[in-house]
Amino acid sequence: MAQSTTHRIIDDYKVQKLIGVGTSSNVFLARHRVTFKRVAIKVIKRLRLTKAEEEAVMSEIKFMETFNHKYIVKMFDSMVDTRYIYIIQEYCNGGNLLEYIHKHGRLSEQTCKQLLQQLATALKYMRSFNISHLDLKPDNIFLIKSETITIKLGDFGLSKVMTENTKNGYFCGSFIYMAPEMIIVKEFDIKADLWSIGVILYECLFEHTPYSISHTASIKKLFANIRKQNPIEIPSDIISPKCRDLLLGLLQHDPINRMNHKQFYIHPFIDLDHSASEESLSKGVKAAAMATHLQWESRFAESYISYIIALEYIIPYYKAEAEGTLKRVLKTQIESYIERIHQLKQLYLKPQITEWTEEYEVVQTLLQTTDQQLEKPRINPLNNLIFFIPDFNVSTDDEQSNYESTDEFTNDQTTEAQAANYQPAEAQAANSSEEPTVVTVRRIKRIKKWFINFIRLFKRRHD
After folding, report:
1. Does residue 72 carry a pLDDT above 90?
2. Annotated binding site for ATP
3. Catalytic residue set
4. Is residue 403 within 8 Å of residue 409, measured between CB atoms?
5. Which residue, 68, 141, 282, 463, shows the most beta carbons closer than 10 Å to its own?
């Protein structure tokens, strides 16, 4: 952390306005004088801090220097002088999650799922460093608004390094979101964060916390409600069974009965494996390439399933993350895959077959084998995707990658409707009224061209 004076702040940044006020700090919106990048500058008054509070600030800076993640507030610089501590960090233009709930009211289950997937991804990243947040609440979940909403987890002043076997006995966090064991036995482990996530999800869904109290009620009354450990009422008529099951698993008063981190990440409502991430998109592209390869080999049942797998990976990214040209490309690809699913179902697969257990296992084995091949050191998996597409000779010439000018990427209306209302592929095929058609050589060439352009675009974005 650099040692400096106020002059460096004034020299490098132009302060535009005050955007936040705390008991010992102010937050300013500023713009860098050279790059014009907007940042948030947190100015902390050292004279108002106790020794423990100043140590917490220094600890927060240390953690933020360590983190580099899409869903965590990025710190660009930090400075200390005799009067102030400065933290220059990413500016979040959407406020925080608490403000968002107050403005929009109860959030839809789909919105909650997207936000929670991002939060789970950030938490999983932190746990890779054995770090627990310990102050998770909507106030500390900031938002970036563009075409989609992206969360940024912040405020790591109470965070601690904790392994699975670590037990802590100090009092920390915000009472309403604090795990019961922190209050009752004053000892907790890494599962404390999971209780807080359960309270956050509950508040997003129902616009109040499980043990909400009025502004006039005392903290003593809140503690009394928590100590009673009365079952938390979770309405079943307005949320899905998966969402309810997740809440029940997170909001267990006894941490022994509470789900652990691994169970949280793989829970069907969270399903990180199919979240809107570049990793999932990469898996989807690979599955689609495998489907094309299997179709060329006349392994139609396996190809059919591989296309379904591809859509399950690609559609979440398309809905929540893709923007601009990439979104248009994905629309076209989704339309193409849905059409091929219809064709495979109608032309090549026996009508009486409704489950493809054996073929599904074959496809999964092929994909797992591919994963093992791609895990070689210093190899970008995207560079190996062409291996699965027969006779692909991808040129690096710029004139061959002008996909924006082709007809295939200009008609978005049909594709957007299909992708937005995606149903299980078997249901789509059953409802399809398309007449069986033969996949012509011209169509195959167009498919190849789409894939070449898509992979080239995605490689540039990924690199």
Report:
1. yes
2. 42
3. 135
4. yes
5. 141
